[in-house]
Amino acid sequence: MKSVLVSFLSGVVFAIGLGISGMTQPAKVIGFLDFTGNWDPSLAFVMVGAITVHAIGYRLSRSRPSPLFASTFAVPTRTDLDLRLVGGAALFGLGWGIAGFCPGPALTSLVSGHPSVMIFVVAMIAGMSLYTLIEDRWLRRQVPAQGGGSPLTTPPSSAFQNPADS
Amino acid sequence: MENFTPLASLIGGSLIGLSASVMLCFNGKIAGISGIVAGLLSPTKHDTLWRLVFVAGLLAGGFLLRFFSARSFEIGSVRSGGALALAGLLVGFGTRLGNGCTSGHGICGISRGSKRSLIATATFMAMGAAAVYIVNHLLGGAL
Question: What ipTM describes this predicted complex?
């Protein structure tokens, strides 16, 4: 139960951080990505602040055998670079640049009731669902299942979901 | 540079880092938003509640922002519904294909020195800049 409260409060703090930092304002995000125009470097400070604090938090977590309210750390361990990683990041970047929204700020902004946010979030969830559909039907068959099993008998959370990067 | 807000952005970023650290140290979870949401779309037992509650927390935080910092929800850009729908599809599909977004790769991954996240972040930053260049400078902002 304590872990549920932690998740909730973390979500609240995350959203407030997004709001204070400027990440929930698409025009500001676009201004940050507009290197050849009227560039606003503010959002680089979001990354500096977040990475500095979380690098310390990560080190703290490494000093413990397990999390305080859970049995294991679900931390990604993959180190290989592949086309999916780069291609996925490229598509994501294009969408981020067009709208000025990424997933966290878009969800947080839902409470504003602004139609732009609604359209973006519905489309984002559709995009995620489309990926799952394509992965199940096509992508997974190209990767031989580990242990020689048929791809169709591979559990749905094989190599791609756990451990994922996020 | 008239909208430059280094201090607010640094403080806000630190709060994001704090939230991600608390999730990791207490619950052992990575605060990557696209991954958290995607997990809700194909729910599995014992791995759904924390995701739902985290997203509920995001929305609750959004409500607080509405009262204390209404400026946070200024859209300030004019993109058509079609452009937003295209962007949403790209963000949803791309974050699943690439296993993460600004939070999962850009903050959590880079903080632990992940080479994958560093490459992903460099890629989405570059493509984001390319998209803004095309839309704002080649198309005159009309999309």
Answer: 0.96
